[in-house]
Write a structure and sequence with these properties.
By secondary structure, the chain is of the alpha+beta class. 37% of the residues lie in helices and 18% in strands. Helix 2 (26-47) packs antiparallel against helix 5 (111-127), helix 3 crosses helix 5 (111-127) and helix 11 (243-255) packs across helix 14. The longest helix is centred in the N-terminal third of the chain and has 22 residues, at 26-47. The structure holds beta-L-arabinofuranose and zinc ion (ZN). The site of zinc ion has 7 residues, from helix 16 and helix 19. Zinc ion (ZN) binds at residues 367-369, 415, 447-448, 451.
């Protein structure tokens, strides 16, 4: 284990262990508490199909069937009582519930729901021990492990439907995706609890996969249709020091995109010519070898998971050309394909990246998982090279396009995160059916809520990374950190007013030790002040202020990043946003909602030069800073036809109230827009 870490530190930094971070931040602690109190227990019910009116998951049930648990127990009369599957309208609902037994139900990747759940549980347990929850997780792990086959294989879809088809459809059938999530969950659970049952299961599955795939003679040269195994294998290598996992990750990364395309071998019926072929490969980022890819394309979650895996391999092997490929793809995303909210995926067709600057607001896909994947990618890029550009994007996605994925009470979720909504369009216009005007309790394809849970409950590992001589503060998240410096404990206590004010206090108790604090200077503040670092060596590099000194008994560094209201414009190539502004303050993007500003938001304009008024208010009992700006509302002319000769519009002055984007749709179904016409 040590070996993997020390090698990695030569090439950058690593996240702090969650066990060394005590989160005190009022903002993020609240989100984590919501995950712990609401999302994790709710999700457990969902995994067991016990949520009234919600699409069944079939997840734990599939594991029980695969492990033949019920069959054995039935003989002893102690069978688990299966819920009554009465929900209609779910594509995988069995025709005849009588024949539920011994069949697989749900999406092919349903196993991953458990893995994401257990990963979130692990992060939560690392910070908030909870024996009851740990017992539930241990029992769930027993069920999952009972399904593992003699040879290490562990994917319920093929265990139930026939092992002869194992790895026969890598393109569509998510076995390696489920393996990836299983491994992420297993490592997290081991790191949090020290229990290795699931980790051993993941390793056995990894060994099975490693024996099957690779460039050696006789092995299969396939790779995942939905990426994640790449970063999971890197994590397994980090946890175990077993080199073959890193080798397998590198193989999956490098094999993708080679011609002839592996997926064509699997699916000869799909082999066609021309652009269609190109598009088919792009969906899976398999159109070119990854080092030659210059543009982020295809399914957005798959893409950012791949890039995260590439960054892992680049860091762990010191591979410069792979890092440069990551940088090119990163720049393409953030300069041409990312919403101001940190959302990615401009089109619902293929849940994909669209062409450059195509960022429609009302048909956006911007899947919560895709922004989460962007954060994974950003953190890995930061680990290789601490450049605040990556952390700025991480912060943007976290406070906006990711948080919007969950209701303020933690009880409902968005899959798609649009930047403009007219509810009637969502109900009547097929092109917008993917856009929901209110959050949903659950989804048959439940990828986003558990992904949110695992990210939010591990926020500390995105805020801080370290190497031998530096502690990097990428996000200002109030926490108490314990860092070992030359064998001695050093405490770093961070108090932060983010996202509502930019005041940060950092107390360092590390007498007698020397290390650097690298403090990110956010891109949204023009200037900042720092106090308390007078006796230190300071310098700024790549958007970080480095403070280096022999630390005294207790020292205080105070930073102030002024949070001005800023009206932002999009690049001129973004057709949808021309003549419009988005209101921002610090890391938070704001929006207009009908609840505060009335219907027909398309008729309002904001006066760009008006003096903003920032107010402390509550939205659904949650404290928040709202912003008021002057503007105007075009008056509707009664009795007008569909078209009329031009005349100057009648406008009346209005005060416009903006709330943080992530809070929208918490007061029922109503209109919302981020980009507002400016005058
Ligand atoms: O395919 C698994 C997950 O389902 C993807 O990551 C999401 O985009 C959704 O399609
Ligand atoms: Zn998702």
């Amino acid at each position: 284990m040590e070996k993997a870490h020390s090698m990695e530190k030569e090439h950058g930094s690593v996240p702090l262990s969650l066990r060394d971070i005590k989160l005190t931040d009022s903002f993020w602690k609240n989100e984590m508490d919501l995950v712990r109190r609401e999302v994790i227990p709710y999700q457990w019910e969902a995994l067991n199909d016990r949520v009234e009116g919600a699409a069944p998951s079939f997840c734990m049930r599939n594991f029980r069937v695969a492990g033949k648990l019920n069959r054995e127990k039935k003989e002893k009369g102690t069978a688990f009582e299966e819920p009554k599957y009465t929900f209609r309208g779910f594509e995988a609902l069995p025709e005849d519930p009588e024949h539920l037994e011994d069949q697989f139900y749900g999406f092919v990747f349903q196993d991953s729901d458990f893995s994401k759940w257990v990963e979130a549980v692990a992060y939560s347990l690392a910070q908030y021990p909870d024996p009851e929850l740990e017992k539930t997780a241990d029992e769930a792990i027993d069920v999952v492990c009972a399904a593992q086959q003699e040879d290490g294989y562990l994917d319920t879809y093929y265990i139930i439907n026939g092992r002869d088809k194992t790895f026969s459809n890598l393109r569509d059938h998510h076995e390696l995706y489920c393996f990836g999530h299983l491994t992420e969950g297993a490592v997290a659970y081991y790191e949090a609890t020290g229990k290795d049952k699931l980790l051993k299961a993941a390793r056995r599955f990894a060994d099975y996969i490693a024996a099957h795939f690779g460039e050696e003679e006789g092995k299969c040269r396939g790779y995942p249709g939905h990426e994640i195994a790449e970063m999971a294998l890197a994590r397994l290598y980090r946890a175990t020091g077993e080199r073959k996992y890193l080798e397998l990750s590198r193989f999956f990364v490098d094999e993708r995109g080679k011609q002839p395309c592996y997926f064509d071998r699997e699916h000869p019926e799909a082999v066609k010519k021309g652009g269609e072929k190109e598009l088919r490969y792009q969906y899976h980022q398999a159109h070119l070898p990854v080092r030659e890819q210059k543009e982020a394309v295809g399914h957005a979650v798959r893409a950012v998971y791949l890039y995260s895996g590439m960054a892992d391999v680049a860091q762990l092997t010191g591979d410069e050309s792979l890092y440069r490929a990551c940088e090119t793809l990163w720049n393409n995303i953030v300069n041409e394909k990312m919403y101001i909210t940190g959302g990615v995926g401009g089109t619902h067709v293929g849940e994909a990246f669209s062409y450059s600057y195509d960022l429609p607001n009302d048909t956006a896909y911007a899947e919560t998982c895709a922004s989460i994947g962007l954060v994974f990618f950003a953190r890995r890029m930061l680990q290789i090279r601490p450049d605040s550009r990556y952390a700025d994007v991480m912060e943007r996605a976290l406070y906006n396009g990711i948080l919007s994925g969950m209701a303020l009470d933690g009880k409902s979720f968005f899959y798609v995160n649009p930047l403009e909504v007219s509810p009637q369009a969502c109900h009547k216009d097929e092109r917008k059916f993917h856009v929901k005007p209110v959050r949903q309790k659950w989804f048959g394809c439940a990828c986003c809520p558990p992904n949110l849970a695992r990210l939010l409950s591990s926020i500390g590992s995105y805020a801080y990374t370290e190497n031998a001589d530096t502690l990097f503060v990428h996000l200002y998240v109030g926490s108490v950190l314990t860092k070992k410096v030359e064998g001695q404990d050093a405490d770093v206590c961070i108090e932060s007013g983010f996202p509502w004010n930019g005041n940060v206090k950092i107390r360092v108790r590390a007498k007698g030790s020397r290390f650097k604090l690298a403090l990110r200077i956010p891109d949204w503040c023009g200037s900042y002040t720092v106090k308390g670092a007078e006796t230190a060596g300071t310098r700024t590099m790549d958007g970080y202020l480095y403070v280096e000194k022999d630390w005294e008994e207790e020292e205080l560094i105070e930073l102030c990043f002024p949070m001005e209201v800023r009206l932002m414009m999009a690049n001129d190539n973004v057709r949808e946003d021309i003549g419009r502004v988005a209101v921002t303050r610090g890391p938070v993007v704001y929006c207009l909602e009908e609840a505060d500003n009335g219907k027909d938001l398309h008729l309002v304009s904001v006066e760009a030069a008006s003096e903003p008024v920032v107010r402390d208010e509550t939205v659904c009992q949650v404290p928040v800073k709202t912003i008021e700006l002057s503007g105007s509302r075009q008056e509707k002319t009664e009795g007008q036809g569909l078209y009329r000769p031009w005349s100057a519009a009648c406008k009346k002055p209005v005060r416009l109230k903006f709330i943080p984007y992530y809070m929208w749709a918490n007061r029922g179904e109503n209109e919302m827009q981020v980009w507002t016409r400016a005058e």
